[in-house]
Amino acid sequence: MGPSRATPAIDRRALLRGGVGLAGAGLATIALVPIPAAPALAAAPGEVEAAIRALIGDAGPVDGGIVLHAPEAAENGAVVPLTVVVDSPMTVADHVRAIHIVATANPTPDVATYRLGPANGRAQVTLRMRLAAKQTVVVLAEQSTGTVRRAAVVIDVKVGGCLS
Fold first, then answer.
1. Of 13, 14, 15, 151, which is most buried, counting CB atoms within 10 Å of its CB?
2. Nearest 5°: CA angle at 115, between 110 and 96?
């Protein structure tokens, strides 16, 4: 047999003390990291209009032709249901190309965009969205003819069991 090496004995208590010391140092380091400022609770003035212009360009929206199914007051702002139904024959010549959802008081106003075509057969979408507070939700439907339809609904969000 060759020469044997002596393995140093590890004291279990010393190991635990070192581990706890390292963990404590890590926690102290984490505690010293500055916390970034919370984002604004609502879109900046003009941001909603800019978001709408980014979605539909210079088109002038026309009210009507859209039916919205939404609660007047949402129990939970994290999962607010919305169903959008656009009156359209959904033919090759006349169909809905896109449905845009915009929430006017959210930090990021553009909530969702759905791309559609004649193969969809029906211009209808259902979603659950997060709303920060009581606000107007605007729905824009882009037609293949170049027309943009618009509809809006005000949804009140309960915060802490109270309507805001």
1. 151
2. 105
pLDDT, position 43: 67
Q: How many CB atoms lie within 10 A of CB 90?
A: 18
Q: What is the pLDDT at residue 30?
A: 40
pTM of the model: 0.71
Nearest by Cα to 60 from 151, 146, 154: 146
Q: What is the CATH number of the domain that holds 144?
A: 2.60.40.2470
The letter for the amino acid at 56 is I
Predicted local distance difference test score (pLDDT) of residue 75? 87
Asked if residues 154 and 134 have their Cβ atoms less than 8 Å apart, the reply is: yes
What was the pLDDT predicted at 16? Answer: 57
Domains in the chain: how many in total? 1
Domain that holds residue 157: 47-163
Look at residue 45 in the predicted model and tell me its pLDDT: 66
Least Cα distance to 104 among 82, 128, 78, 135 occurs for 135
Say if 60 falls within a structural domain.
Answer: yes
Helix/strand/coil for 21: helix
Question: 95 in a domain, yes or no?
Answer: yes
Q: Which residues of the chain are modeled with pLDDT < 70?
A: 1-45, 160-164
What six digits make up the tokens of 123?
Answer: 């211009």
- Between strands 62-63 and 148-159, the pairing is parallel
